[in-house]
Amino acid sequence: MEAKREIIFDKLVYSCVFEKHRGNEEFIPEHFLGFQLSGETHAFHADGNSVIPENVVVLVRKNQLIRTIKYPAKSGKYQFVSITLDKETLQQYAFENKIVVDKKYTGKQKLFFEPDDFLQNYFVSLAPYINKKKEATPRLADLKIREAIELLLQCNPDFKQILFDFSEPYKIDLEEFMNQNFMFNVSVTSFAKLTGRSLSGFKRDFARAFGTTPKKWLLAKRLDEAHYLIRHKKQKPSDFYLDLGFENLSHFYASFKEKFGTTTTGL
Question: Which segments constitute the HTH araC/xylS-type domain (predicted)?
Fold first, then answer.
């Protein structure tokens, strides 16, 4: 069964599934505030794996890659709602409230926390829009976003260092980043942005670091990892091909044989 994903208003997204569902890789371009209404979300990212259980709030920072698996609750339903905290809204809020960030946030990448009564009631207040019993006007939608910002800052004032840091991503170590994130099946443009580079700058620095193109390197890297998993971990391609960024098994098998001159069963 396909996942039900509805955009209730511009920045409010509701997801619902009734059986285990594997999501695609996602590039997160803006901060978002999420709430696990029912079931669990298993999130995979460069720093490891995280589990978002029921009734937990998550603040996810922008400019990163995430892959998810959605697990319904025992009742048979998975529900997750997210509010996007976009740069334009945050800049306007910071201007109106004279907020200045003088240092960067140094905490963990993923921020999971139990909601206080105010945040709990905030997500409850979104139910009429999710259930289509009430329609949000643009003005009302804007007020709900601002309310989310207010509640986050009330919950933890240090969150301002995340929300109101408008500096552009700086150039990071390309080689280290790619070796940590090669398994994500996203565009080269997304990889470029995540490393703080223009597309042309990324390709130029990539060639300097790896001596080849991103497309060729990614395929070779994924195939080498697959070879290791099959030969040394005795894993089956059907169990890991998606985790390594391959879109389908037929493409994986053909690429594997071309690179290693044998099928996966010949190892």
Answer: 172-267
Tell me which residue of 6, 36, 2 sits closest to 130, measured CA to CA. 6
Nearest partner of 126 among 93, 89, 163, 80, judged by Cα: 80
Q: Report the candidate in 145, 151, 139 with the shortest Cα–Cα distance to residue 91.
A: 145
Picking from 131-135, 173-177, 179-183, which range would have the lowest pLDDT averaged per residue?
Answer: 131-135
How many CB atoms are closer than 10 A to CB 72?
18
Task: Please give the pLDDT value at position 110.
Answer: 60
Residues 6+ apart with CB under 8 A from 137: none
Q: Is the same domain home to 100 and 151?
A: yes
Q: How far apart are CA 6 and CA 13, in angstroms?
A: 6
- Report pTM: 0.86
Phi, psi of 154 (to 5 degrees): -70, -35
Lowest-confidence range among 18-32, 50-64, 94-108, 245-259?
A: 94-108
Same domain, 255 and 129: no
**Residue 2: per-residue pLDDT:** 53
Report strand pairing: 48-52 vs 57-60.
unpaired
Token pair, residue 215, equals 């497309």
The DSSP secondary structure of 172-195, one letter per residue, reads --HHHHHHHHTTS---HHHHHHHT
Is residue 38 a part of any domain in this protein?
yes
Per the DSSP assignment, residues forming a β-bridge with 35 are 57, 81
Domain range for 252: 174-266
Tokens 């999710």 correspond to what residue? Answer: 130
Residue 47 has pLDDT above 80, yes or no: no
Decide: 41 and 80 in contact? Cβ < 8 Å.
yes
The partner residues of 78 in beta bridges, in order of sequence, read: 17
